[in-house]
Amino acid sequence: MWFLKAAQEENPVGELNLAMMYETGLGVEQDYEMAAAWYRQSAMKGEAQAQYNLGMLYDNGYGVELNATEAVSWYRKAAEQGMPDAQYNLAISYQEGEGVPKDIKQALKWYTQAAEQDYGKASYNLGTLYYNGDGVKQNYTKAKEWFQRSCEDEELEGCSIYLDLEGAGY
């Protein structure tokens, strides 16, 4: 009730919270279309979490038509505000060429920004780029550093099996 009242008052945080309730079905019947509508209201006001969540809906086709280009547009808005989840998803979009032309340099930029905020999956992907020399000069030392940093992220499971670069002679 209070989130609805705040949203009706055009409060971006209220709109975000109401959208999350609709997305998850918490306290209301799950409705992705309503979630998208409220995320959009909040996102248009600059709320980074709403921008990211709206991007996710477009990336998955929940409540909106599947649209990688639109997803990237929303990820970029949130990424530019420093949100590591959005930076990571934007990096993947550039690495895979989904919604944007494939651009490994842009992927590297956004992975780095997320990894510098201790976002483990971004650190791991950076390690992979350095290990393979994909878009950067191959550098096993940097690869190992990024792999090790990825292991500091408690959300990553099985991280301790990262490449043993010293054992491989690097």
From TrEMBL:
Designated gene of the protein: hcpC
Catalytic activity, EC: 3.5.2.6
Organism the protein comes from: Psychrobacter pasteurii
Keywords from the UniProt entry: Hydrolase
The organism's place on the tree of life at top rank: Bacteria
Gene3D superfamilies: Tetratricopeptide repeat domain
Protein known as: Putative beta-lactamase HcpC
GO MF, one example: beta-lactamase activity
Pfam families: Sel1
PANTHER family attached to this UniProt entry: ERAD-ASSOCIATED E3 UBIQUITIN-PROTEIN LIGASE COMPONENT HRD3, SEL-1-LIKE PROTEIN
InterPro entries: Sel1-like, Sel1_AlgK, TPR-like_helical_dom_sf
